[in-house]
Design goal:
The structure is a homodimer of 249-residue chains. By secondary structure, chain A is α+β, with helices and mostly antiparallel strands. The first copy, chain A, is 41% helix and 20% strand. In chain A, a hairpin with a 5-residue loop joins strand 4 and strand 5 (68-74).
Chain lengths: 249, 249
DNA sequence: CGCATTTTTGATCAAGTTCAATATCAGTGG
DNA sequence: CCACTGATATTGAACTTGATCAAAAATGCG
């Protein structure tokens, strides 16, 4: 049951029971991956779309001399590139950061889904547009923001994304990342991540311990990080497309 | 006539005359923008898809304290976010870097195009996937590469993109950007861009003068910049979908 | 408890920034 | 054709952010 994806999509537009069922049906083939294993590697030929059901993953690219950039994080409910199978080969790798359970959505199932369920198709387009907007925001993050803003911004983003699918608990959320992984994502050294974290802690802006992140005052962290959630487009924009069915499930 | 777009898409799959005509028909509403004017601003509500016909543009985001990040460059044939009108408001702005001529593709025209011309729809999906791959590569660029690699990488990318649509001339291509614009795109200061350019010139890797870029030895620049063009997916991957018509146009 | 991983600390170093001045260039109008 | 003007490019010097290297402390887990 890809309920995280459904919950995410319903931030855009309310789906019908039929829509939801179609999504369930598309996500039949399940697989699991161990922590730190590659889900797909640069050069592989993508044959289907991966949907993360449980656990965290990341896209990354390894440079020849060992430098590594984490390009994005996947949390439950995230799709790895709708229609990616149009490309001959992957230009990056995807790795499990925790144990990961995912569904492989075959090409045919996705095509059928978008043909027969226009509301789902639009919701998936919305999801694609948001993913790209997140990638753009990372460009801004890496290009312009200082270390402390950069890390604070990432924390805000992940918290808000997780809240959207119901995975936050009050002012805290899971954050199963090491400082080295944060460093590879933020384009900073692990040493500097460590010092930046201390600075955020000292300012009372975050608590990060035991793979959990707590943000006592989200507004304050947003302000310190120049975080504006508009790029996540979470304001139920597809309301006019909402399925109109009795609440009978 | 959106011939740059058609040429770009045909790197993925050969279109039929009918496909091409449908693209022409969709791109009817023309507009022009002066150098340095905004084509659309953050907060505006997008109602159609812009297709750059002539000139260069960029996406950018302005931070409250004046810092600016250029997020991507648009060259002729580039579409600004297919289906963007699903979003309530723009999370970034788009500005003309030179005088720009573009076509506004209305929502209905795009929907019709993708419904009636599956080959075009797939080609547009390919284009979307490549755009996102470029954005990811910028993440790697800003996160891991040194100033000289970063700038060299950008030059390689732009040259290869322009070559794909026939806008290069031997080993040179237009590059109508100032050093300040390069700086805003690369997350570096204009002073450092200037010094990095000198370094690239001294090494004989580039000539950049009068809004033209010359790359005497592309292989050498690629090597120095760790540039691997795989992420541009330019190897005619949709060949199996090629329209099969007599060459009668 | 013991081992591997992760976090933390200190000291030194380098890449890139900032500020401010000067030089060059592309248009424009006379 | 030249002088003027604003934009763009270039230079120098001091400074800052974050990197690197190496070691120690803490944590997690079987």
């Amino acid at each position: 049951m890809p309920h995280h994806l459904i919950r995410k999509l319903e931030q855009f537009t309310k789906l019908s029971r039929d829509d939801r069922q179609a999504l369930e049906n598309a996500a039949v083939k399940r697989r699991t991956f161990a922590e730190h294993s590659d889900i797909i590697q640069e050069g592989d030929s993508p044959s289907h779309v991966n949907l993360i059901l449980e656990g965290w993953a990341c896209r990354y690219k390894q440079l020849d001399d060992g430098r590594r950039q984490i390009i994005s994080f996947f949390v439950p409910g995230d799709l790895c590139d709708t229609h990616v199978y149009l490309l001959r080969e992957m230009d990056h790798s995807i790795a499990a950061l925790t144990p990961v359970r995912l569904a492989e959505i075959p090409r045919a199932a996705l095509d059928q889904l978008t043909e027969e369920h226009p509301r789902v198709m639009k919701a998936l387009w919305w999801d694609t547009l948001v993913s790209v907007a997140i990638q753009r925001e990372w460009t801004v993050n890496l290009g312009q923001r200082t270390a402390i803003e950069r890390l604070g911004h990432l924390f805000c983003e992940l918290f808000v994304r997780l809240r959207g699918i119901g995975l936050t608990d009050g002012d805290s959320c899971p954050l199963p990342l090491t400082q080295v992984e944060l460093a590879d994502a933020m384009g900073l050294s692990n040493v500097h991540i460590n010092r930046t974290l201390q600075e955020l802690r000292r300012a009372g802006l975050v608590v990060f311990k035991g793979k959990r992140l707590t943000i006592p005052d989200l507004a304050a962290l947003q302000k310190a990080s120049l975080f504006n959630p508009n790029y996540l487009h979470l304001d139920h924009e597809g309301r006019h497309l909402d399925a109109n069915e009795p609440v009978a499930d």
